[in-house]
Design brief:
Oligomer: single chain
Shape: elongated
Number of helices: 12
Distance between the termini: 66 Å
CATH superfamily of the largest domain: Trigger factor, C-terminal domain
């Protein structure tokens, strides 16, 4: 018999399900007989416990499980008969009125997946990120690597500028009172790297060894130190030393320090170029993918199941707790993290997941084995022993699934680019690499 499906609101549906008490009792008796074969009780040999005693000690739990199983089976049969695709788990509400004697009846309330109408991809406007990698970009990367390996030489009378290592004493007070962490002697840091607050670096810039300065510094409201966050301190600094960076030459020793065993500078530069090109490709593809996904979401309108959004919110809460635990935050597992703080992000992820899934199915964009292997090999090229990395990913189902997901998204992006209105957007190298 086709079940009657009621629409409550949006994607929420309700159906009535029922089970016969006789069927429940039959299942209970069958389970009691099974338990009786091995049941133990004081004064009785195993398997010889009287059924009446088992009824008193076991029947309640067995009956509870039997009802749950029968209701679950009835619900599955009703859903199969209705042809609905349910999202999340149903909520059961007892039905008391109009229920025949000898019958347990429930209302099952649940959500269904939405009907999704895919947008006309030819109407989408997408920006495809493009970044040029040439000799200048390679040289810029080499310069960064040189700066990371810089040595420092103190210079008498040198004016502190970005890139210099400055050693100084500092002491801070708030309303004339010193505070924890506000004082240090012979404290070194490289100017311009953002290690210190901007106002601190501005005060140091332009000073020479032996010079001092007094200046105010306003701590941000979200500063890590709660005792000083949002407050203004007065700092006194005295520069002890200004050291100039001495960058290593791009020679055989430099090449060896970066893993080029033969010390071949040309091979090193070729490797750097290859690494940059792979990284730029990955980052520009990620930017383009965001543009594609934004365009898809903006062009499709449908309700999303609240149960899936709630599940995603809880997953984000658990991820936040795990991150806090890794950072060493005490009692991170008990820290109150409101799930509704993730609602907007969760709804977007669920909506995008449903939309992409529908597009993959309709356009047959599933990840092919050869695509997955090619992507793994591309990723493995960044490692010293690529073959071992490829073998590791191909032999680990979980890792391989991660790559399959990436390839699937790539397929969606390429499919959309082939049909949409695409505008190439030139993105500066420093911007795409996050160095500006």
């Amino acid at each position: 018999m086709q079940p009657v499906v009621e629409t409550l609101s949006g994607l929420e549906r309700r159906i009535e399900i029922s089970v016969l008490l006789a069927d429940v009792e039959k299942a209970v008796q069958a389970e009691l007989k099974r338990v009786s074969r091995t049941a133990k009780a004081p004064g009785f040999r195993p398997g010889k416990v009287p059924m009446a005693m088992l009824e008193r000690t076991h029947a309640a739990g067995i009956r509870y499980d039997a009802i749950n199983n029968k209701v679950g089976q009835a619900f599955e049969q009703a859903i199969e008969a209705s042809g609905l695709r349910i999202a999340g788990s149903p909520k059961l509400e007892p039905k008391t009125e109009g229920t025949p004697e000898g019958t347990l009846a429930f209302y099952a309330v649940f959500e269904v997946y939405p009907e999704i109408t895919l947008p006309d991809l030819s109407t989408l406007k997408i920006k495809r990120s493009v970044t040029h990698v040439g000799d200048a970009e390679v040289q810029s990367t080499v310069d960064i690597l040189r700066k990371q390996r810089a040595e420092y030489a103190a210079r008498e009378g040198r004016v502190a500028t970005d890139g210099d290592r400055v050693t100084l004493d500092f002491a801070g007070t708030i309303d004339g009172v010193p505070f924890d962490g506000g004082k240090a002697e012979d404290f070194p840091f490289v100017l311009g790297q953002g290690r210190m607050l901007p106002e601190f670096e501005v005060a140091v810039r332009g000073l020479k060894a032996g010079e001092s300065k007094v200046f105010p510094l306003a701590f941000p409201a979200d500063y890590g130190g709660k005792d000083v966050a949002g407050k203004t301190a007065e700092f006194t600094i005295t520069v002890k030393e200004v050291a100039e960076p001495i960058l290593p030459a791009v020679d055989a020793e430099f090449a060896k320090s970066l893993g080029q065993a033969e010390g071949d500078v040309e091979k090193l530069l070729a490797d750097i170029r290859g690494n940059i090109e792979r990284e730029v490709k990955a980052r520009t593809l990620a930017r383009t993918k965001n543009s594609v996904m934004d365009a898809l979401i903006g062009a499709a309108t449908f309700d999303v199941p609240k149960s899936l959004v709630e599940s995603e919110c809880q997953a984000r809460v658990q991820a936040a707790r795990a991150e806090l635990t890794q950072r060493g935050v005490p009692n991170a597992d008990k820290m109150p993290i409101p799930a509704d703080a993730f609602t907007a992000e969760a709804e977007r992820r669920v909506r995008l997941g449903l939309l992409v899934s529908e597009l993959v199915q309709k356009a047959q964009l599933q990840a092919k084995p050869e695509q997955v292997r090619a992507r793994i090999e591309e990723f493995a090229a960044n490692y010293e022993k690529p073959a071992e990395v490829v073998s590791y990913y191909l032999s680990d189902r979980a890792r391989r699934s991660e790559v399959e997901g990436i390839v699937l998204e790539d397929n969606v992006v390429q499919h959309a680019l082939a049909q949409a209105q695409v505008e190439d957007e030139q993105v500066p190298f420093d911007q795409v690499m996050g160095t500006t």
